[in-house]
Amino acid sequence: MFLFFAGILGAYAFWVYLRIELAVPATRRLAVVRALILALVLLLLFDPRLPFDATGAGSAPWVLLDASMSMTVEGLEGSSPKEVAAERAAELETEGWEVFRFGNGDLTRQVNDKQRASEGLISELAPSLQLAAESGAKEVRVLSDLRFTDLVAIQSTLDVIPVAVQFEDLSQVARNFGIARFSLSDVLNRDDSPVAEIEIFGGNSGDSVTVEIFEEDREVAQVRVLAPGPGLRSTGTVRLPQAAESGHLRYIARIADEEQVDDAFPSDNEAVTYADIGYPSGALVLVSAVPDWEPRYLLPVLEKVTGLPSVGYLRVGPDRFVRLGWGSELGIADSSTVKRAATEAALLVLHGLAADADSWITEIAGGRGQRLVLPLDSEGARAVGLETGDPISGEWYASPDVPTSPIAGALAGVNIQGLPPLSRAMVPSDPVLLPPLQIQLRGAGSPESAFALIERPGGRVAVALASHFWRWAARENGHEPYRRIWSGIADWLLAGEEVIAAEPRPTVWVTSRGQKIGWSLGGDSSSVHLEIRSGTEIVTDTILVGGGEAMTRSLDPGLYTYTLVSESDDTVGAGRFDVSGMSLEMLPVPKMPELSPGSLGLLGKTEDSGRPLRTYPWVYLLIMALLCGEWIVRRRTGLR
After folding, report:
1. Model confidence over 538-570: pLDDT tens digits?
2. Is-contact 195 240, C-beta < 8 A?
3. What is the residue extent of each domain of the chain?
């Protein structure tokens, strides 16, 4: 097959030089060079395996040493897989094997015996097997406790790579309980009781484990959870007592000390989370009267761009609302609770407002304060004083021309062409003088405004005159336009109001071990000075540029405090966050992957395998040299 295609490409090269190009003395030699270049590129596409490396010698066999945290577990016999693996790797190294450590999908060569073999957070083997195959390894020995998180990917890789793979099981029998997840529901009123949900894994089926829950440094509850057994999870729920104070509180779930006596892996015995107790007056509140995708995308965007604490409610029945958020945070609220939150909101978002809306929702829509309204029909728009026609069905596309408006700056440089269409557009009875965004029916009709910005004595109101903006957020090319349009609307609504500033802060209050720290820095581009402390020690001291999000280096597990100072030396943000020490390394049960028939057939016959051609640098250097040589000769002979 290769010779057939190579012949076609060679004939094409000679045809070009003999029939198309000008006749020069070096025509045939240039045709040969062009044919050789095309043949080499074709050979790279076929990617044959060469049974020798760059020096002509066979590739050394590889040892893949598991460098994940679970290798540090001491079994009932007293030894750990890490110690056994280190001894075995040293033994194989003396026999000519090359030792590499894997973990988190990374692959690094072991330089000396003092390297830590327990820094990986998860045991991902498949990427390392693929790299070993591409590097020409003919035989691979895996030293691991077999707690792989990518077992399916490993099986798929073993089925396709022509490498002899053997596994040495170093797992130890050990007793371990762990916390897989800990979450706490926020509560709107301090008098309400938060609900904690704890997910436990490990142990022996039929046993139980006691988990202590602390509010700040005060123990507030204990919950007894049934052990699910190896590789499984079980969940316990407990209603905590009323918080001692309102605010952003830190909660810790910890396996009781008496349960940790024989625990072989302490890194999964504690989990941290934060909860907002008693939302302050002046929060971001979203109330949705109809099921729709819009609140799911809109609430997180508004929370980020405004910096306000947020809460969302979805109406599910008469006098029944469910909290918007993670499954662990969902809870039923009555209309009085939602009404109280909406009344005290600094920015109230009303979604799905229509003729059949509850009377109290319609009343609040026309009340004092800043309102963002996404009505379902003309009656919903009339509730805030805007007269419109009935919704017009069809596909309404955003006009690529951004008109002059109070939010034009937020849309500067954003490409809104090619975005998914909106629907159910409503045309105001009085034309909007400064439309923030224009839409056209089927992309060719007369332009109509997608929003109405209303100034009134009781506060500003923004009304969305079309539906299904969430379609933008669901597309990759629509993420930025979606964020910009709502950021501009929110900035206009809150301009000049005495509301909580968009305070720079961490994007999450509990960062996973090994992850970089993300920061949300508000809407402007001014720089801030960030200082992070662990106790009294400064661990990060840097400058961040605002206008979006930024990242700082990962930190060791623990509690940290941060301070953000503006260019004018004003403190614009301060607080605390955690880097979680929790690890799920012990959750997967040890399981030996099934070797493919191809791998079994390769054992003892590795001399027939080789290294893929694409992994040799000399092939690419040769192609570049031939291309440069052809170009030089063409120019010197007058060809272009």
Report:
1. 999 999 887 667 899 999 999 999 999 988 888
2. yes
3. 2-54+616-636, 62-171+590-609, 177-277, 284-494, 505-579
